[in-house]
Each structure stands twice: as C-alpha cells, then as structure tokens.
Input
Amino acid sequence: MIGWVSGLGAALIGLLETLGGLAILAVRIVRSMSPRTLDGRETWRAFYKVGVKSYAIVVMTALFTGAIMVIQAGQFVSKAGATSFVGWAAGFAVLAEIGPVLIGLMFSGRVGANNTAELGTMVVTEQVDALRALAIEPLGYLVAPRVLAMVVMLFLLTALGDLFALFGGGVTSELLLGIPFRVFAQQVIEANLTSEYLLGLVKGSVFGFSIAVVSCYFGLGVKGGAAGVGRAVNNAVVLAAIGIFVTDLAVGLLWNLL
Amino acid sequence: MSQLYAFGRALALLRDTWKWTFRGSLRRQSKVFARQLYEVGNRSLLFITVTLGVLGTISVFQVLLQVERILPEFSVVGPAFIQTMIREFAPTIAGLIIATRVGSGIAAEIGSMVVTEQVDALRLCNANPVDYLVAPRFWACVIQNVLLTVYGGLVGICAGACVAHYAWQISWGSFFSLSLVGFPDVISGLLKATAYGMAIPIAAAQAGLETTGGSEGVGAATTRAVVNASFAVVVLDFLLSGFSFLFLFGNP
Output
C-alpha cells in the first residue's frame, strides 16, 4: 500500500517537474526570440529542414486522410441516400479536426523526433558545451530558430495539407462512391467551411509550438550516450502526441465558446 | 527506389518473424514475451486513456454544435458516433498512438543494442536476432494493440457520452444505442487493429536493426521508425476502409 502511494507520488512529482520545465523553457525561448539575436543562416536552414523535407510525407498523409474521411462519410450516404451530405461531412471532419491532428502527429514523428535526436546528439557529444565555451547562447542560436521554423512550417503545411486532403477526398468520391469530382468540390464550397479552415490553421500553429517546445526540452535534457538519445526521442514523441490531443481539445473549446 | 527496397526488406522481416514463431520462438522466449506484453500494453494504458478520451470529447462536442443547427433532435448522434468510433477512430487513433509510443520504443531499444554491438554478440552466441528480439515484440504488439483498441474505443465512447449527457442533456439510453452497429463494423475495426499491430513492430524493428553509427544513428532510426509506422497505419487504414466499404458493408 505504502509502496503504491509513494509510486503514485513519484509519478506525480515527475509529471509536475516535466510540466514546469516545459513552461520555463517555453518562456525562455519566447524571450530569446528577437530578430536581433536570431541567427540568419541557422534560421534559414531550420526552415528548409523542417518545412521542405517533411512536405512529401505531409502531402501523402493528407491525401489518404481525405480519402478515408470520404469513405467513412460515404457509408452513411449509401444507406440514407443523402449524397449532398458527403462534401460537407468529409470537408468538416478534415478541416476542423482530423486534418490538423493527423498532419500534426506525422509532423511530430518526422520533425519533432528528428529535432530531439539532433539536439540530443549535440548534448551527448558536448557540442552544446562547446557553443557555451564560445560564449554563444545555445537557446538563442540552436533552439529559437527551430521553434520559429516549426510554428511557421506546421501552419503552412496544414494550410496546404488540408487542400490536398480535400483533393484526395474528391478523387475517392468519384472512384468509390460514384459522385463526380466536380460535384464533390461544389458541395465543399457550398458548405462554407472558412471558419473550420481557420480553426484548423490555428490548431496547426499551436501544435507546432507545443511539438517544438517538447522536442527541444527532451533533446537538451539527454543523459547517457546512444541509449539516452533513443529514450529521449521516445519520451518526446509520446509527450508531443499527448500535447497535440490536449491542445486540440483546448483550442476547440475556446474557439467555440468565444 | 530505396523506399521500395526498404519495403521489400520489411516484408522479408515479416516472413522471418512468422518463420521463427512457427519454430517455437515464443515458447523459448516466454519471459521476454511476457515482459513485452507488459511494456506494450500496461504501460500504454494511461496514454491511450488520455488521447482517446480527449478525442471522444472533442468529436462529440464539435458534431453536436453542427447538428444543433440542422436537426431538431439528437437521437441519431449517439449511434452514429459509436459506429464511426468502432469502424474508424478507435483503431486508427489507437494505432497511431501505439506507433509513436511502442514504435519509437522498439527502435530505440534495438537500435542502441545494435550500436553497442549487443546484437552482434547475440549472433556470436548463435542466437538469431529475429527469433530473440523481434518475434516476442511482434506478437506482444499484435495482441496488445487489439486489446488497447477495444479499451480505447470504450474510453472514447464513454467520454463522448459524458459530453452529450452533461452539455446537451441527451439521455444515456438514447446515446448508448447499438442500433447502427452490426457485425461487419466490429470485424472491420478488429481487422484494422490486427493489421496495425503487425505493421508497427515490423517497421520499428526494421529501423532498429538497420541502425548505423553512434548516438546520431539511434536518433535517426527512432525517427524513421515513428514515421514509417505512422504512415503504415494511415495507408493500411485507407486500404482496409476501402475493402470494408466494398466487401463487408455490402455497398455496390
């Protein structure tokens, strides 16, 4: 009994420590992010690595996401015969909820994990200490450009990915449901989903920030060689996924209540 | 092209895993197998509870906000939500969650074994890494992914029901209606869960076994494992949804 209680307490303290560390890191990153201190070349490189390199996987995920949503909506349609419902249902689900979440999860696996591994390797091989020895603040030089790149790029990737998802949905509705692509597109446009699209974009940038902070936190906290890097990446993707779902709930509630 | 080769190597790994299973790998490695069942299943419970609970909450919330404007009453929301959850969201979201947690865990573990030459040591002792490392993880993942999907679906449905009941005063009875759920829906969901459970450990173990270099290599392998496993889940979801739509649910 005592062992169980102390285990619970230890888990709780560990959780609070992580959350506190994340909050402090987030504040310090935002503070160090002024145009004066941001290294131009490092920022440009981060934009390329974060955005361009994950473009292909995001587009593929989005295409399949749209297709899956149309198949799921189509099941209700062929029973009830309400064909005009497909464009609205699939569009709504993709733009407001599933699109940003799936793109965010994919982005977290591709970019967040990569970022933790990279920073972790730098910590383990003492490159971060070398930066400090050269009087370069690692937070401003290494971390701030990556965080900025992740926020901007996940926003842009969500904006593009949503459109690819609708395209994938249109193709599927033509091939599988027999609803022509034009009709599907018309339904999506008539459903007037601008506010859902904007909600998805807001979600995208919030996910980008939370993925960035979580991955940098675990990357900078690596201890103990190659096994430590692997463990850090594992922890980072788990917490980033939880972060995506929790912020998804928070943003969704705030958006609808305000 | 290199992606095609990697896919072929994954299929070869899958074949080897089955081969070693039929040669009694699980019986010989029963301790590792039991440990992996615990690692994959019990230690993902909290993670699955949080994510699927949030997913159920937010989906019912957003759907009801929309339905409120169109339909006069909500009796169709519960059954339709439960059906979609069983067919689609419980298996796929649980699969993605397991892909990130377990996939990265397997790759990190096997990858650091490769880097520290423990896998070579296994080969020196005439123990096959697939037999010793991959097969127990594979079957643990298959079994636990199905169980976690069932559990996650229940959590999501209950979270959604709470939103419907407390925020929209929909009675429990009209929400928890299985009128739309049929045998094909359950089959479709379980089929997806089983397929994801097989794809995730193979993608992760392949990334782990192909690790090169030091700590940098382990990081890269873990990243590759998460991406490949999640992408496998999305593609399999598309294929199995299409298959169920055409053949299980009796659509034209």
